């Protein structure tokens, strides 16, 4: 009976069978070197060759020849990997080029769309500005007409007009005109000062308030006068005196008393030397049908050898009444049961 295992062993161990395998492996490795396949083919062939080398009984020369085949297969695998990477890079560049072309086309279309939108927006803005300009012109004309009508109405309405007439001390029995020579008051001591005023308007002065204060400053000095005005504004709210009733129109003066400041001896010496002058600042606040109004008076007296000389007017107060910027809180009210300052 034929022994298949024995026959197979004879064929496997025969030198020509090993040579045939080597020739087949060598031809395959050379073909893969010159015609690289996808990565993995050469490495699979290399695995088969390694298995054959492990099983066949090889001489030293045979092992050298099989080793050449192994290196050829390794070279083939490296070439396949390199060519695949090169192909991947080329495909990526081509894909990027296509994407860039598509993106450029889209950007060009987008820029055209944006330009058209900007043109439309600019046209709309210009039309809106033109419309708003015409609306503003209409509103301005209406406002000017309203203001003119209000001004004409206010000019024809009865108005209160408070005017200062004189300042005098308790030590004087007569009431001189405001700009006449005043007696040599002892301003070193605090004393009651009396201001007289009239309402020369055609309407009653309601919510009447007044306040007065004396200051020392350089004669006829605009900077000092501005400082005095600012100081008075800061104390006006807490020093304003209120009347219980309206001030009726009249040509007869009404009194408005207030206490003068007490100046020190060195200050009065500078007044006597002409370095300082005595300033007064007085304010009337009142309301009528046309609104709330202020009337301010500021003046100063120059010292002479035997008296306080003629009074002078400051340059910082308005010559007429002006709208009140606020409504000061009254700190004290004179205790009169009847309207204050009646004739």
Layout of strands and helices, then pairs:
Blueprint: H1 4-13, H2 15-34, H3 41-55, H4 60-156, E1 162-169, E2 192-199, E3 206-217, H5 222-239, E4 241-242, E5 250-259, H6 265-272, E6 277-288, E7 291-303, E8 308-313, E9 322-323, E10 332-333
Helix pairs in contact: 2-4, 3-4
Describe what this molecule looks like in 3D.
The strands form 2 sheets. Strands 3, 4, 6, 7, 8, 9 and 10 form a 7-stranded mixed β-sheet that branches. The chain is rod-shaped and about 160 Å long. The chain has helices spanning 4-13, 15-34, 41-55, 60-156, 222-239, 265-272; strands at 162-169, 192-199, 206-217, 241-242, 250-259, 277-288, 291-303, 308-313, 322-323, 332-333. The chain is α+β, with helices and mostly antiparallel strands. The protein contains 6 helices and 10 strands; from the N terminus they run ααααβββαββαβββββ.
Using DSSP, what is the number of strands? 10
Question: Quick one: biggest sheet?
Answer: 7 strands, mixed
- Average pLDDT: 76
Helix-strand pattern, N to C?
HHHHEEEHEEHEEEEE
Q: So what's the oligomer here?
A: single chain
Beta-strand content estimate? 15-25%
How far the N terminus sits from the C terminus, by CA atoms, comes to 165 Å
- Tell me the number of helical segments per DSSP (H or I, 4 or more residues long): 6
Helix content: 40-55%
Radius of gyration: 57 Å
Structural class: alpha+beta
Overall geometric form = rod-shaped
Low-confidence stretches: 173-185, 328-343
